[in-house]
């Protein structure tokens, strides 16, 4: 096809969660799993592999689907199969593979090296958005789907086989190109609550670190996916402690003003089953050196 021609196609962007924290030895296996999940889903949905264009993105895949294949089949049956295949892959993994999938329909240009166009750019931005990233982490999900506002209005809102518009939630995103609206879905779950999630600052470079959600888990630490999941668990535990009214002081037991603070758990009326974070005196001090005349 002439590179100057543009055809309206469904663009799909697939990215792996925290791919930069996989080691060089782990990345080939991660990539194998992504392709196995996607290609098996295409076969299960009755979409021939030769009917779609697929580009490798290192930690993900960029796909375009011609208009002769119904968009509802990809939004419905194909997404169901992707989710089920991903769950099957994750059953044997200590650290589950997470995928961010985005979809949009728009004009796409093909050349000998791949595809291009604003539709491609927008789809990739949606998959890489802070909302998609943080939903996947906060909800401990295997998969998050983001669709453009136009795709939701034109296709999703009408429903269909395996397409439930009530399970999508809208969000306003500040992307590099400006503000856009998008809709997010966690397969197999109710509509996600996007309220606490912080979107990107307008004009933020794509692919940069996501803004930390208010009260949510911090950015992933160095140390691989297991460390990232451990950090999320620690952050959630800290939030629960704060909600219960317990105050956690600095690690050295001092406040910023230098005043000593101590915490103790247990029944302080008896010297049994108590947990002390600092040396604590319970009861009356006895001995000649402390006796007053």
Structural class estimated from helices and strands: alpha+beta
- Tell me the helix content: 25-40%
How far apart the termini lie comes to 103 Å
Number of strands: 10
CATH architecture verdict of the largest domain: 2-Layer Sandwich
The name of the CATH superfamily of the largest domain reads: Nucleotide cyclase, GGDEF domain
Overall mean confidence score, pLDDT: 77
- In DSSP terms (H or I, runs of 4 or more residues), the helix count works out at 6
Radius of gyration: 25 Å
Main sheet? 8 strands, mixed
Count of all domains = 2
Indicate the CATH topology of the largest domain.
Answer: Alpha-Beta Plaits
**What percentage of amino acids are in beta strands?**
15-25%
Low-confidence stretches: 199-228, 246-274, 280-287, 289-293
- Assign an overall shape: globular
Helix-strand sequence: EHEEHEEHHEHEEHEE
Q: According to CATH, what is the class of the largest domain?
A: Alpha Beta
